[in-house]
Design goal:
single chain, about 100 residues, mainly alpha, two-stranded parallel ribbon, 5 helices, 2 strands, about 10% strand, flat, Alpha/beta hydrolase
C-alpha cells in the first residue's frame, strides 16, 4: 500500500510541480478538514493539509480531534463538523460575490 502511495505522490509531483510553482494563491474560500487521528499519527499529513489551507487568503483549517478519515463522514458528530466547514465556504463565497458584484 505505501509503495503505491509513494508512487502516486511522485507522479503528482512530476505532473503538477510546474503549475504549483506558478500558483500565487487565491481569494476563493477554502476549508480544509483534517481527521485528528490521521494528523496525530502522521505529522507530515497535517503539514500538507495546513499548506492547502494557506493557498487562499480566505481559508480555515479544521482539525477534527478524535476523528479518523472515514469517521469524518460516517460519525454524526464529526460529519457535522464537515458540514460546518462546507457552510462556511458557501457563506464566504456569497460574501465574496456580494463584494464583487
Amino acid at each position: 500500500m505505501w509503495r503505491t502511495a509513494r508512487h502516486e505522490f511522485a507522479q503528482w509531483q512530476r505532473s503538477w510541480a510546474g503549475a504549483a510553482a506558478e500558483f500565487t494563491g487565491t481569494e476563493h474560500p477554502i476549508a480544509v478538514v483534517t481527521a485528528g487521528k490521521i494528523a496525530g499519527d502522521d505529522p507530515a499529513h497535517g503539514e500538507m493539509q495546513a499548506e492547502l489551507a494557506a493557498l487562499s487568503s480566505r481559508s480555515r483549517h479544521d482539525v477534527v480531534a478524535g476523528a479518523g478519515h472515514e469517521e469524518l463522514v460516517i460519525t454524526p458528530e464529526y460529519a457535522a463538523r464537515v458540514a460546518q466547514s462546507i457552510e462556511w465556504v458557501r457563506a464566504e463565497a456569497v460574501a465574496l460575490a456580494d463584494t464583487d458584484g
